[in-house]
Amino acid sequence: MVRKAVIPAAGLGTRFLPATKASPKEMLPIIDTPTIQYVVQEAVDSGIEDILIISGRGKRAIEDHFDRNYELEERIKGKEDDVMYDEIRNLTNLANIHFIRQKDINGLGDAIYYARQHTGNEPFAVLLGDTIIDSVIPVTQQLIDIYEQYESSVIAVETVPRDKVSRYGIVGGDELSEKLMRLNQLIEKPTIVDAPSNLAIAGRYILTPGIYKALEKTPKGKGNELQLTDAMIELLKRESIYSQTFEGKRYDIGNKLDFIKTTIEYALKRKEFSSKVLAFMKEIIAQHEG
Ligand code: G1P
Q: Is 0.90 topped by the overall pTM?
């Protein structure tokens, strides 16, 4: 059973400067909700009750966001905005949320290694803090369903255009069904020539505890950092790993253009904004074309 999730959120957010100089990128809001709240919610909606957030220097706002704020609660309690009061209170009860700080920025693999004592001998989910996925069934739940069938690590993947493969970890393997593959290749940010497919690792994983031993054996890789993808290559020597092409739409909020697009799409999903935002968009398109 997958009971725990790990959310790495220690990165410097250099793609989003200057906003991320003093504020964590995971706290950048889509409309009114910090991105990490969507990620925590996905874990909770997948039945996870225990979440470890790997944070780092300058990330205190994330801890405060999931903590009580008595003064604020007192202020809004009983006011017309009671729904907001409930939402703010519920944030602290979503799950048991724990924090650990990554001392140096040494890559995603190093961040995950910090979770070893917390997850112990159990399989666990990993949800990258700068990706949100909109789907009917939460993607972590989709992976848990596969895990329960095979009791092996599973990675969510999606097809990306060939010219984007060098931005992602890319997988290759034997197709078991239209969406499911047993992997025999993983490569972090390959050139188009080296990429075994255009199936990209999408920021959601279920990992077996075997990943920790694999991480210990893995040398630093791309960017002189310990890469989780490289550790999974090591893990493949002893265990099977599967990939599942998930159902849903992924939003990479770590870069500015995708962040703008995500904000617009999420505004259009919200009843109170959709028609107004659409009318505004039509107006500015007409202005720009006119
Ligand atoms: C990380 C992983 C990569 C994965 C990507 C998804 O890379 O190392 O394998 O495809 O997340 O967003 P990053 O984007 O942190 O460079």
A: yes
Residue 201 near ligand 1, beta carbon < 6 Å? yes
Which protein residue's CA is at the shortest distance from atom 13 of ligand 1?
Answer: 168
Q: What is the distance in A from the centroid of ligand 1 to the CA of 242?
A: 17
Phi and psi, residue 97, nearest 5°? -105, 125
Residue type, 108: L
Are the C-beta atoms of 182 and 173 separated by less than 8 Å? yes
Give the pLDDT of residue 95. 86
**Residue 268 CB coordination number (10 Å):** 13
Say if strands 249-252 and 241-245 run parallel, antiparallel, or are unpaired. Answer: unpaired
The answer, yes or no, to whether any atom of ligand 1 lies below 6 A from the CB of 243, is no
Q: Percent of the chain scored above 70 by pLDDT?
A: 99
**Domains present along the chain, CATH in parentheses:** 4-254 (3.90.550.10), 255-290 (no CATH)
Q: Is 188 in the pocket of ligand 1 (CB under 6 A)?
A: yes
Q: Which atom of ligand 1 is nearest to the CA of 108?
A: 8
Distances in whole angstroms, Cα of residue 180 to Cα of each of 89, 122, 140, 242: 39, 23, 15, 7
Rounded Cα gap, residues 247 and 144, in angstroms: 14
Q: Which atom of ligand 1 is nearest to the CA of 131?
A: 12
For residue 81, the model assigns a pLDDT of 67
CB-based contacts of 56: which residues, under 8 Å, 6+ apart? 9, 10, 11, 101, 102, 103, 105
